[in-house]
Write a structure and sequence with these properties.
The chain has 15 helices and 16 strands. With 394 residues, it is α/β, with parallel strands linked by helices.
Length: 394
């Protein structure tokens, strides 16, 4: 195939999964990173080419220039696939320049950032009649009274700009149990010059987290989709998926398709919902506007989203498809799931027997592949090196 697929960010298993998903279909894949450090995704046998570019945040203009310069040298426009939120933010901010040289689904500059930003996503959801958790902003009138009466403790302090918050604090949110802790969390955010808001916790264990995973074509019509249920995440309760199953939940299609088509979204999106264990209602929590953590699970159940993207972008779209049965297949990121399980059991949220029982499913592994073992070996080598390096330093 003459069009190359340029995959941004290969020091995490999302980039690795995208490379495998494309490479298995004969697509020439290009791993793009700013450093060789922990670049295990580029070790895949399905990686055709590797390049190093300037850092997307520290040298943004040079990063954009390097991407454009690479595209100019190709025989056909490459397809661009960002695999990390921070890459996506930069691409979205420079979409007017990038789309002249790359094939990329989203055509409305700023829309990806709008759905990633919690404040603007909240506004969009309200406008389109989608439930979102009750929220109070820092400068709202009667702030403390509203926290006590509407939000109640414990509650969440969440950022508008998630990628920057995660980079700063190594966590997605602050969970606070009283007004003193809330004030301390707000002060931390203020010191880091990050805007935050306070949100009610929707009741329900982590297995009340669901996703709607979909692809929308250039007419903003959904062509491919399925739904999943998270069972465990890390950090526990408010982290990323480490053990997720594909589970058909038709209500999520009704909510998710109407919303994404309503905002004229294009390309892949994953909406995360939480089901209120008391009311049974689904609340929109966030949207991932890039390939998801458990892309390999979606691939295994018959939805190769990186390749679906690629084929539509080169003008040869695949037939529409949806997975509307429960396959019982699970995504498993063992490295972090072991850490999660330890914390779930320690806090009494799970029993060891429940954990063991959950493993009796066919699995889609985050990193390991018997057909493509080098990335897993590179990953483990780095982790072992950091473990023993840290001990020597201590």
């Amino acid at each position: 195939m003459k069009h190359k697929a340029v995959v941004l960010g290969n020091n995490y298993y999302i980039g690795l999964s995208a490379i495998r998903s494309l490479g298995k279909e004969g697509v020439h894949t290009v791993a793009v990173d700013y450093s060789e450090e922990d670049r295990y995704g580029a070790e895949s046998k399905y990686c055709s080419e590797k390049i190093i570019v300037p850092h997307y945040k520290e040298e943004t203009e040079r990063f954009i220039y390097a991407l454009i310069d690479f595209a100019k040298k190709q025989d056909a426009q490459p397809v661009l696939i960002p695999c990390h939120d921070t890459y996506l933010e930069v691409i979205d901010a420079h979409l007017d320049q990038i789309k002249e040289y790359y094939l990329i689904p989203q055509t409305e500059q700023g829309l990806a950032t709008k759905v990633m930003n919690k404040d603007t996503l909240h506004q969009l959801a309200v406008e389109h009649g989608v439930r979102v958790p009750e929220t109070v902003r820092i400068n709202d009138a009667n702030f403390k009274e509203r926290i006590e009466n509407e939000i109640k403790f414990p509650c969440l302090v969440k950022p508008f700009d998630s990628p920057t918050f995660v980079r700063t604090f190594r966590k997605k949110i602050f969970k606070v149990y009283n007004m003193t802790e809330l004030e301390e969390a707000l002060e931390k955010a203020k010191s880091a010059e990050l805007e935050v808001f306070v949100q009610r916790i929707i009741p329900g264990f982590d297995d009340h987290m669901y996703t709607f995973d979909a692809y929308l074509d250039q007419n903003s019509n959904i062509t491919h989709w399925t739904t999943c249920q998270k069972l465990r995440q890390y950090p526990i309760n408010f982290g990323a998926s480490v053990y997720t199953i594909q589970k058909y939940t038709p209500e999520l299609y009704e909510i998710g398709s109407k919303f994404l088509e309503g905002i004229n979204y294009k390309g892949f999106a994953e909406i995360e919902f939480k089901k209120d264990e008391e009311s049974g209602e689904y609340y929109l929590i966030e949207i991932n506007a890039r390939i998801t953590n458990f892309n390999h699970l979606l691939y295994k159940v018959g939805l190769n989203f990186p390749y679906i993207t690629y084929r539509e972008m080169i003008g040869d779209p695949l037939e529409p498809k949806s997975v509307t049965e429960t396959t019982n297949r699970a995504f498993w990121y063992g490295y972090e799931d072991f850490l999660a399980v330890k914390d779930y059991i320690k806090t009494g949220q799970l029993k060891s027997t429940e954990v063991v029982k959950s493993f009796f499913r066919p699995k889609a592994y985050a990193i390991w592949s018997i057909q493509d073992p080098k990335p897993a070996l590179a990953f483990m080598k780095t982790r072992v090196g950091k473990l023993f390096g840290g001990r020597r330093k201590g």
